[in-house]
């Protein structure tokens, strides 16, 4: 079964809610840590970011995300599940572009594993972003 | 023989395309020379290379059907 | 205005969703960290926990939660908002009993501030729990 | 004078009540003695004390209308 780590456009409220609803199914989890990365309306040299356009190398994203999950599961014995969802395409300022959802037996492992997953995503996931300003000019990040 | 070359992020902008096919390239270094000829601007950018979804820093030999990708520094999140 | 840090029964999916929906209103936040504490169906001496009954000293909870928020806001300059919701009464195994929601300009402060808020809650919030087993016997924690 | 005493967590179970009023208690120590008389079992439990929602470790004097709470170790989350 191939898991899809990418979603077209922003990570929707519906998708987040659906993941949170599933928490109750596993009564051996004591803590869930959820990271949501959001597009900021940064001002750069007087111009305001209105959106980010993400592009990704899909096959490599899947391979790297699988590696990240394996790394976390082997390092944190109490982690029960890890969900990773990253946007591709246009995500407007104020919308969510990354979700990391980690469930564990106890809180410390949930927290540490979630933070580490986010760091590994930043380092290893082949995703690129183009910040688009209100005047439609852009810069690559 | 022919390989498929993918350009991502800013490199897709620099090369004006996200995919291009090259014939008769023996190795990564060979391919890099060809790409430098086509898009001289590329020399100003940092990138890594993957072959068939596997990142490598070595000058590997290429075979027909290989997918080579030019990857600028990752910027997810 | 008095904020209510306590909710009767489990922290509902609806309440969580409502907080997540509000993230988009602030375009200066780049990261949100959400901790959800869940009641585990632990087995203790062969008996399985079916629920936890939480009790709290409400006035003191409010005072201590305000202190925690002040501590976090003074320590983490990029934190934009902190929400804390703790259950009172019966929360069944698999249900959520604690929510901590921290928004910040960048991810590191969101992560660190969220973890620290949870630790301060564990130390300082006057809440008590009675673990109730499937045979209706109980122990205090 | 009268003070209101609150018992929380396991101490509410030990004392059989969550609230009780005491008359003519001058200080925290005074109140503790009275409570030890009423609920001798309480000596086995750890607790801290708050007066009017302010935790204190001192033997403060009490005045009429004070709310004193007996707080077992916190166990939130």
Detailed description of the structure:
The complex is a heterotetramer, with two copies of chain A (141 residues) and two copies of chain B (77 residues). Chain A has helices at residues 13-21, 58-75, 107-124; strands at residues 6-8, 31-38, 43-44, 47-56, 79-92, 96-104, 127-133, 138-140. Chain A has 141 residues and is an alpha+beta fold. The model of chain A has no long low-confidence stretch (mean pLDDT 95). Chain B is of the alpha+beta class and 77 residues long. Chain B has a single domain (2-71), classed as Ubiquitin-like (UB roll). Chain B has a five-stranded mixed beta sheet with strand order 2-1-5-3-4. Chain B is globular, with a radius of gyration of 12 Å. The model of chain B has no long low-confidence stretch (mean pLDDT 96). Chains in contact: A-B, A-C, C-D. The A-C interface holds A 13, 16-17, 20-21, 23-41, 93-96, 105, 107, 110-111, 114-115, 118 and C 13, 16-17, 20-21, 23-41, 93-96, 105, 107, 110-111, 114-115, 118.
Structure at a glance:
The complex is a heterotetramer, with 2 copies of chain A (141 residues) and 2 copies of chain B (77 residues). Chain A has 141 residues and is α+β, with helices and mostly antiparallel strands.
User: What is the total number of structural domains of chain A?
Assistant: 1
Q: Roughly what fraction of the amino acids of chain B lie in strands?
A: 25-35%
User: CATH superfamily name of chain A?
Assistant: Molybdopterin biosynthesis MoaE subunit
Named at the architecture level, the CATH assignment of chain B is Roll
Main sheet strand line-up of chain B: 2-1-5-3-4
Q: Major sheet of chain A: size, sense and barrel closure?
A: 8 strands, mixed
Q: Rg of chain A, please?
A: 16 Å
């Amino acid at each position: 079964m191939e898991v899809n780590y990418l979603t077209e456009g922003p990570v929707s409220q519906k998708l987040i809610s659906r993941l949170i609803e599933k928490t109750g199914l596993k009564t051996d989890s004591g803590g869930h840590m959820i990271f949501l990365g959001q597009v900021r309306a940064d001002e750069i040299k007087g111009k305001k970011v209105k959106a980010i356009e993400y592009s990704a190398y899909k096959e490599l994203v899947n391979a790297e995300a699988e590696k990240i999950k394996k790394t976390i599961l082997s390092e944190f014995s109490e982690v029960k599940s890890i969900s990773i969802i990253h946007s591709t395409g246009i995500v407007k300022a104020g919308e969510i572009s990354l979700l990391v959802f980690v469930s564990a037996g106890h809180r410390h492992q949930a927290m540490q594993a979630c933070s580490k997953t986010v760091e590994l995503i930043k380092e290893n996931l082949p995703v690129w972003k183009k910040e688009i300003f209100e005047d439609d000019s852009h810069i690559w990040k | 023989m022919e390989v498929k070359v993918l350009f991502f992020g800013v490199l897709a902008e620099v090369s004006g395309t996200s995919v291009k096919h090259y014939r008769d390239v023996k190795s990564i270094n060979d391919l890099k020379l060809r790409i430098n000829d086509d898009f001289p601007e590329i020399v100003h950018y940092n990138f890594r290379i993957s072959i068939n979804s596997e990142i490598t820093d070595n000058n590997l030999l290429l075979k027909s059907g290989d997918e080579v990708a030019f990857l600028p520094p990752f910027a997810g999140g």
